[in-house]
Amino acid sequence: YALSTVGLDETDHKTLRSFIGPPLRDTFAKYGFDSEKCEELVAKYREKFLVTGIHQNVTYEGIHEMLKNLFEHGCKIALASCKPEGACKIILEETGMLKYFETVCGATLDKTLDTKPAIIGVALKRLGVSEEELEHVYMVGDRDMDMIGARENGVHAVGALYGYGGKEELSESGAEYLIEKPSELVEIVLGKDGE
After folding, report:
1. Can you tell me whether residue 127 is helix, strand or coil?
2. What integer is the mean pLDDT of 79-108?
3. Checking DSSP bridges between strand 156-160 and strand 138-141, what pairing results, if any?
4. Which of 59, 152, 172, 182 has minimal Cβ neighbours within 10 Å of its Cβ?
5. Residue 60, SS3?
């Protein structure tokens, strides 16, 4: 939608999938737009997203069960996303998952908080994680920026192969673990016996 407003009709499915995850400014810059035009395109994207896109989410199979399991075992769960924080909360509420999250941390619209490493850092602060507790923290994501953000914050990087990034992208960006389904995270965090 945003690209069509400047006469670009991107139809390549692989290219479109690559847009999911990274900050939109970075995506639009790949087309050669300057920072001012990128901001205009981000505004166009949000114009559509905040009306319809925000309500078109589908959860991955097993996500609800994984969150419930970790939550019931006393794990503190946070979301760290480059999407605007308000949008993240709406999506989690509509998908019935907000109840599992102790905090939801997203990007700010004024760009003061818009990189994955910084957003993860804020989420850790909100959770009250001490330096000593970092070894017990797992960042799960499906793109390279998630793995880089985990490493920069000193937490375990878990690459979700069921998402939008591939094995090569996740491995090369520092994933310690690669999981093919959400239930595998429970085994990593709690152990094989769920303890």
Report:
1. helix
2. 96
3. parallel
4. 172
5. coil
